[in-house]
Amino acid sequence: MNTRMRRAAVAVAAGAMAVSLAACGSAKEAGDKTKESGAAKGDAIKVGLLLPENQTARYEKFDKPLIEKKIAELTGGKAEVVYANAKQDATTQNSQVDTMITNKVNVLIIDAVDAKAIAGSVKKAKEAGIPVVAYDRLAEGPIDAYTSFDNEEVGKVQGKALLEALGDKAKDGQIVMMNGSVTDPNAKLFKQGAHSVLDGKVNIGKEYDTVEWKPENANTNMAGAISALGKDKIVGVYSANDGMAGGIITALKAGGLNPLPPVTGQDAELAGVQRIVAGEQFMSVYKPYAPEAEAAAKMAVALAKGEKPAGTSTVDSGTAKAVPSVLIPVVSLTKNNIKDTVVKDGVYTVDEICTDKYAAACTTLGLK
Description:
The chain is α/β, with parallel strands linked by helices. It has 13 helices and 12 strands.
């Protein structure tokens, strides 16, 4: 190679290197910008908290204040929690994510109304450099962490309790299955867990997926089941949660079922616990909200600070592999362990449960 050609080659190589370095610099700057938008310095972070609905008492009474309390503890009270409730409307929740992005929150905790419908908003947040913690329901999209209960185990616990209540009468008649909303991925897992226990051991006369988890829809479905099957044929009801159990029991009473067949539930709502005390509802699934809320808060604060969230396991969210997760165990709540669960954990006081209407039943159970 002559001198002129060698100089030309060196010049081309140098130019290429300069372009490469410039490109690396641009990529680094873009990465830094994304990191900065999602990670605040110190404890003065802004956390967006989006909960799905207020039909179920747990969200406003437990989840919200518990998450806020833990975030305050973790940040010395310097963090700001920006809250919104979608009131069971997926479109509203997507708009709320847009607002959170505009407000430049540092991290989002999302309990999705509709796991599929939220995917696009999760992607938008990710593109804005805002990490997302999927709370209670496994949202689709590029989430960064997840915490919930072992939801298939919830269904198994409910199914086992119903079999226990039915005893030798399990196949004497038919049961009605009242599952949750198809838009909730947890409802699918509850159903799977329940079926894995109940199939082959009971006769399922009617089964429903209840629109929006609404008690009034469960009430309508139950009335239809009584009409179709006959009141004397129904020996038990699988209800996926307490709210629906209330609507179901109202329908059972209106349909003339006496004594009431065993009915399951979930969430240990106050009204549900009181129905258990009164003998109207057989059981509920007690889910300790504090450890779930604390796990979400810890993950959110870590992500907001640009740190890796800690999980006790991992889940595959479909678009994000090996997402750090924390799954909280659940407890079957019956009249025999009210004092050792919701009362002991400070969820409700005896006075809250044992109002005048339930005083005699509480005395019988030793709730004082």
